[in-house]
Amino acid sequence: MKSTVKRLVSATAAAALSLGIAAGAQAASHSETFKIGVVTFLSGGAAESFGVPAWNGGKLLIDMLNKGELPAPYDQKGFGGLMIEAIEIDEAGGATKQVQEFRNLVQREKVDAVLGYVSSGDCLAVPPVAEELKAFLVLYDCGTPRVFEEGSYNYVFRTAAHAAMDNISLAKYMTSRGIKVGSFAGVNQDYAWGHDSWADFVASMGILMPDAKASTALFPKIFAGQYGTEISAVMREKPDLLHSSLWGGDLQAFMLQATARGIHKRMQVALAAGDHVIPQLGQKMPDGIILGARGMNGLAAHAKGGELVDLLWDRYKAEYGVFPVQAPFRMWQGLLGVKAAVEKAMKANGGKKPTAEQMAAAMKGLTWEAPSGTITMALGNGHQAIQPNAIGTTKWDEAKGEMTLVDVEYYAAECVNPPDGVKAVDWIKAGFPGAKCD
Amino acid sequence: MDLLLVILVDGLIYGAWLFIVSVGLTLVFGVLGILNLAHGSLYAIGAYSTATAVGIYFAYGGDAFPLGSYAVMALAAIIVAVVIAPLLERGLLRHFYHRDEVIGVLVTYGVFLILEDAIKLIWGVDPLFVYEPYDLLGMVEAGPLFYVAYDFLVIAVSAITGFAVWYFLNRTRRGKVMLAVIHDREMSQTMGVNVDKVFLLAFGAGVFLAAFGGALTAPMISVSPGIGVNVIIVAFAVIIIGGLGSIEGAALGAVMVGISRAASVHLMPELELFIIYFVMAVVLIFRPEGIFVRTQTRKI
Question: In this predicted complex, what is the ipTM?
């Protein structure tokens, strides 16, 4: 009896399998998917601030795209009708590991595109491999200008502006809001991000507020956690303005320790990329802090509003219980950029799934609308995006019980990004020639 | 004058914190002969447990008596020690006491990796905040600056902890038994000392001190994955300067590192990272085994 049942099950399974294979073969062209590798920090120091919220936003948007829930021009399901199949990879582990993971994604998983990388180190290490493999790579987050200022690629694109914009905008905010700055100090992390941010800010202030003097520049090591001595040093100096590009747990710890000592009452505090700690700090982020979000992202985008922003803002809040900060916005502009490029390429090739070459050709110099404004691949010979930026000042809304941004200043992309072929630092030092500000 | 005072205060605050996070490490090495690389994870577990326990305390009416949160912090560290120390010491470390010290390092490195993942499994990757105890005591004016009074509480707790450990080891019978075990394990055993019990007690004290360091730090920071990794590096510098296994050495090492780092931040900020290891290098040139390591008798 037992063996009869066994034989029956085997026969049924074999029949089902063969029928399935046959059906699958016939429907292959209809069930084709677009495989995209998404690489971001799912563990480690940058996960909670950047990687996890970005991937939360990514999952949400991919689901909405596959269901065709976005308004025009993104109302076609998936990417040009191809259902999006995402494979997420943890970015933790360093550049060597990421190079190997990238090879795995392209050669073993056979992804059609890779979207990823928060770490500047990874953004510098992976592009040469993408070129070697002729694989379509979109860098969605990292800030180092060096990727396209020092390199040239055919298959590599970055859909977010590089970091110079953050500090140029911050300096412009001081002038446009009439903030008096006689001297300014900085607390930035002791690695490329912190040093570059401070250098860009000092250079911008040198042009926009030449009388303002740069005083103490402190560079505590990344993930230091204890900032008591740095806070004392800055408070002793009594500058009018404190600039910081700290992020994640470092920024949270710094704000907890600095505000407890009343630093914000003694000087103006300006955080180049500080919006992402608001969900965690809540009211521990005091009123009156000048805040950037590396683009017109998060609270600044919400303050401006728009169909796409409002839809994604509400869905993200409903799904995760917090508002989307800068990281999901950059993920969204990256995914929508890939969608725009794929659909443009499909239009040109008769509706077939595009090759890496076709996608690269379509993305070069592309312009598309994102929740963070109009994105244009204007730099790096059409491979590096520029985007508008916004800076505002924190104000707790007692009635709603949430943080808002007030006195928000919006900056056009061409106002705070250098023209193509000019290094950001040279452009700043030359006095922003050709800047198109409203 | 103001600058000297600020450097001294900043240095003592940082040094007190350094001492509290490194004294357990040196105690465990002194007694068990194991360089516990998992010390940073135990510190992190102390911080996470405190964040959870104090959060619960305030969620269930702790606002009526906020100072009670300090007792909750200490209690959280005790619970961590009571739960984890027997598991690690009885379940794992005792099998390696007679092996080479390098084996102990490798084993505790394995424990460190396991605990780091366990932290993520239990508490996730989102940060925890427990800033209420940090603000409770208000601010204190010291020279030209204002400090959070909690920082001075850490100095006081650190001094009391150091004295308590020293008093226990040098002035109590149990402490003297522990010193005897440190000096000669086999002879102590021959004299009827329950060495297993001494080891468990010492390791439990080490775990408590690590967790207590985390508990004291939790209100000042965002408690998130990886906080233990950075602590262990600087804690090693402190106990190497003072001499591995020396409580007095850990205290002196912490104060030296704290004040030299504060002086560097105020006077030559570009040397902030370098100065800690510079102090260590200078000490090791003149005292290759650290400041307080006693001359070792060689057994034949």
Answer: 0.85
Instruction: Give the number of A-B residue pairs with CB atoms closer than 8 Å.
Output: 123
Nearest CA in chain A to B126: A48
Top mean-pLDDT range of A164-168, A312-316, B167-171: A312-316
CATH entry 1.20.1070 includes domain B2-286: no
Domains A33-162+305-386 and A164-293+388-429 agree in fold: yes
Locate the domains of chain A by residue range: 33-162+305-386, 164-293+388-429
Its CATH class, for the domain covering A33-162+305-386, is alpha beta
**pTM as predicted:** 0.86
| Coil, helix or strand at residue B156 | helix
Q: What is the mean pLDDT of chain B?
A: 91
Closest-CA residue to A222 (of A260, A269, A187, A270) = A187
Q: Do residues B80 and B42 make contact, with C-beta atoms less than 8 angstroms apart?
A: yes
CATH class of A164-293+388-429: alpha beta
Q: Are A129 and A151 in contact (CB under 8 A)?
A: no
Chain B contact present for A230, CB below 8 A: yes
Question: Would you call B273 and A221 a contact, using CB atoms and an 8 Å cutoff?
Answer: yes
Give the minimum alpha-carbon distance from A368 to chain B in angstroms, rounded to a whole number. 33
Structural domain spans, chain B: 2-286
Q: Residue A175 region, left (φ>0) first, then alpha (ψ -120 to 50), else beta?
A: alpha
